[in-house]
Amino acid sequence: MWPLSPKSIGILMGVLYGISMRIFLEVSGTFNFGSLVTISFMFLVPVAIGFIRVHFEYNQLSPMTYGRMAVVAWQPIFVFLFVSVVTLLEGSICVAMALPAFMFFASIGGMLAGLCHRLWEKKSNKAVMSVALLPLILSPLELNFLHLSKTYEVKNTIVINAPVDVVWQQLANVSQIHEGEYPSSFSQLIGIPRPIRADMSGGGVGAIRTSQWQKNVVFKEVITEWLPNEKMLYNFEIDPELIPDHALDQHVKLGGEYFSPLHGGYELVASGNNQTLLSLKTTVLDNTNFGIYSRVWGEVIFQDFHRALLKLMKDRAENDNKLVLKTG
């Protein structure tokens, strides 16, 4: 058997470190020692992976440019995430959300390894150990003392070429949404199920609107404001225990520990030429410590979902309006 090259050792050690940290931090969550949904795992673990990758190969490629350090640091990241998906440690949604952060911080780790080699070559082994242990040191502190829970609203609006009363008829009860009828969206591409139908029991404030999505996802929306042809607002009533484990990754499960829509609804404004401005808004609770990173992802996913659903409402309302004009 041929001995492994420094490049292969760097990739292998980076992957093994990432998988080990992934399993250890999840298990240690039971004891409030660590968690996967922390800055320590999302940002510091990839720094360590990138550092390890470059550390083992640096002396073999002298001089090694910082640009190359930044790029080769991605190699163990790709392998680590691929292994995580294949072994069902993670789902496609979490991997898609983590990938940009992992690549960016792995590059920082790779360049940091090169800097350490250039400044403290004799102490580079101590440096790699320090970087590798940093997530383990900071994770329990973050988990027990840093809590950055926040809420934000996502809102989208579309112009529909139909009178407001025709648009209103699309909102409470949404008949079966067929595969080709629902617009393609980024959220579906990364594994988020699409809505199938919504059924309203009764009408007005206090009524229950039940939404059904693919993969047996079902949740309720309790109507809080009901003004025909003007607005329909609701609070989400989601039991995470009723959301199948295979439907959404555990860390982004609806109503779960980290992300949850709180309330939202539709608002309609009649404009000239028999047009209607239809708005859909959702207020989201974010219990992670990821700051702007999780906010950006929340905006991307909810706006993508809003646009697809509003497009569906637009198409249905405009088709219904054409039928009314023909028969009228």
First and last CA, distance: 82 Å
Kindly state the number of beta strands: 7
- Biggest sheet strand line-up: 1-7-6-5-4-3-2
Low-confidence blocks of residues: none
Q: What's the overall average pLDDT, rounded? A: 89
Largest sheet: 7 strands, antiparallel
User: Beta-strand level of the residues, as a percent range?
Assistant: 15-25%
Structural class by helix and strand composition: alpha+beta
- What gross morphology would you assign? elongated
Layout of SSEs?
Blueprint: H1 6-28, H2 39-57, H3 66-72, H4 74-86, H5 92-119, H6 124-145, E1 150-160, H7 164-168, H8 186-189, E2 195-201, E3 208-213, E4 217-227, E5 231-237, E6 259-271, E7 275-286, H9 292-327
Antiparallel strand pairs: 1-7, 2-3, 3-4, 4-5, 5-6, 6-7
Helix pairs in contact: 1-2, 1-4, 2-4, 2-5, 2-6, 3-5, 4-5
Explain how this protein is built.
There is one protein chain. The chain is α+β, with helices and mostly antiparallel strands. 48% of the residues lie in helices and 20% in strands. The chain has a 7-stranded antiparallel beta sheet. A hairpin with a 3-residue loop joins β3 (208-213) and β4 (217-227). α2 (39-57) packs across α5 (92-119), α3 (66-72) runs antiparallel to α5 and α4 packs antiparallel against α5 (92-119). The longest helix has 36 residues, at 292-327. It is elongated, with a radius of gyration of 25 Å. The relative contact order is 0.13. The model has no long low-confidence stretch (mean pLDDT 89).
